[in-house]
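2024-03-11 09:14:02 DEBUG pipeline.ingest accepted 1 chain
2024-03-11 09:14:02 DEBUG pipeline.ingest length=309
2024-03-11 09:14:03 DEBUG pipeline.predict start
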Amino acid sequence: MQQEIDISVIIPTFNRSAALKNCLRAVSAQILDGEIEIIVIDDGSSESTLAVVREQQQAASRPLRYLRQNNKGPAAARNAGLNIARGRIVLFIGDDIVPADDRMLQQHLVWHDRVHPMENTCILGRTTWLPGLTVTPFMRWLEKGRQFDYFGLTHGMSTDFWHFYTSNISLKRRFLGNDRFDERFRFAAYEDVELGYRLMQRGMKIVYNSAALAHHDHPVSLVDSCGRAVKAGQSRALLETIVPTSRRRMSQEKWLAALKIMAVNRVTVPFWLCGARFCERRCESNLFFSAVYYYYHAEGYRNARVAGR
């Protein structure tokens, strides 16, 4: 039987060796009153991920474990990490996440052990763009709900499963038990929300600790986001088959839905794209950005619904 330690940091990765290197350096340098292990799950990368991990294994003072699997998506990768984790607390971050200072893990540990020691409490940290990145108006817009949504949260408040963000969230492994991410979700979209929903059905409470701050080292362009919106739409269709409340959250007044379809469709989308490209680096246009995101998200959603019939 493996000896239990304090925190297991679970990091799925896919073809982001440069970002992963920065992530591992920062996690290895964390100062905390406890033992940690770092688990990297390589989701079938075609680049030098193993070389980066081996380099960090030699340099790091903390245990760094590496698993490789065929490409199955982040849900399956996190499950593989969970299956070997020894920590009484598991912390999920991404390969493009860099702790903002050397006490981020300590924030998670202290809140679990002293502030919220109840077994069912989950700690949500904050994630924002890495200082030094050129944060475009479009990226600022993404941070206000499409990618993350921390703007409605205040330090210490409880929130719901829609904020179960695996970029920076921790929970007690004993409470997690045998629950795992649903591996039907092949993309990094809604697979974390779906697990959060199931855990909340069992009584999980999510508490927000803004001092557990992490930086997101992943510039995003409008073109990148269009592709991601299609995948998010596909995942959203799957989510609706599992989580009953998700359809109610997405549904709108019928007249508003009809207006959206009339305004944003295959005929009009070139106009919206043109406006969004113009604004991407100039000004934060909720109108153009929302229209483009809505179109591609809806395309992915409709395609998945048709394929599932």
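2024-03-11 09:14:41 DEBUG pipeline.report The chain has a mean pLDDT of 93.
2024-03-11 09:14:41 DEBUG pipeline.predict end
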